[in-house]
Structure prediction request, 378 residues.
Amino acid sequence: MTETDKLKDLAKNIKTWGETLGFQQVAIVKPDLGSASKRLLDWLGSGYQGSMQWMGEHEDKRYIPEKLVENTLRVISVRMDYLTDSNMIAVLKDSNKAYISRYALGRDYHKLIRRRLANLSKQIETEIENLGLSHLQLTQRPFVDSAPVMEKPIAEQAGLGWIGKNTLLLNDKAGSWFFLGEIYISLELPVDDSQQTNKCGNCRACLKVCPTNAFPEPYVLDARRCISYLTIESYDPIPEELRPLMGNRVFGCDDCQIICPWNRYSSETREVDFSPRHNLDNSDLLTLFEWTEAEFNRNTEGSPIRRLGYQRWLRNLSVGLGNAPTSKEIIAALQKRLEDPSELVREHVQWALERQTQGANRRSGNITVDLTVNLTAE
Prediction:
């Protein structure tokens, strides 16, 4: 058997092993990121990244894979589905509920997928020895939404889908409810050439449904207006003019996925670890707002939500409560937070109280609230 034949067999095995490890799709690509890097630079030049300055760092490593991992010749790109329920719209329509992006309901995907990719790497290493290819000096490194890796352009070129108008990767058989991962590898494996064509057509559903109008044009996202950025990435106060538009979305936003016609083909995941924890797929805003910091830390252990921290968790929930129907219970809970040690929390609590009070005065005229609070740093 020639070396080329051995590498072909290895490529087939990699896909079989990947499916056994729980990936719904595995493909191999020799990425060309020239066009993607130009689009990113244009995007950065427009300031759409907000405070995510890291997106403009490590340019060479981002655009040239072998600068990130020495001797990289191919990238193994994988897809893992994560959708676990179909009650998104019901939660969004209930203003007393807290909407949390579906990807964050269960175990942190970074850890789960990284472990699976590490197992796949070990199988590749073992097979290289079995095939008598140790002289190729294998170098490989797995990534999961980490390091300067252009995941979506790589996956698009690998045939896992196309980048849609909402800037997410869409697959004509699986929609967009999935995670991506990669292994940079030094082997000259045969590549896949089944790239999907862009099938968005004239559809503009995702652009129209965005609550905060975060798409200045198709295929371009202004992160500064995106609810996912505002509630997860940003450490700053949420701009007041955007707060009423956020509704009950307190950790991320899935509207542009929910509305996408291609997601009618998505399937619920078989990964138990992605199942919702602590009823986070259907919890009341007030219940989550009343968590102590110890409860937050305990209930978000092993969850993507943990990186938010308790203060930003309360910040986001305050906005949701300010947008909720007026109730004495909500007003009482907010009042208890008026003297919170965090200036960030206090400012959003006061905004929410003002919204609740305005609504209460319109409805009954008999609820009074003391909004006196020192918003300056302690």
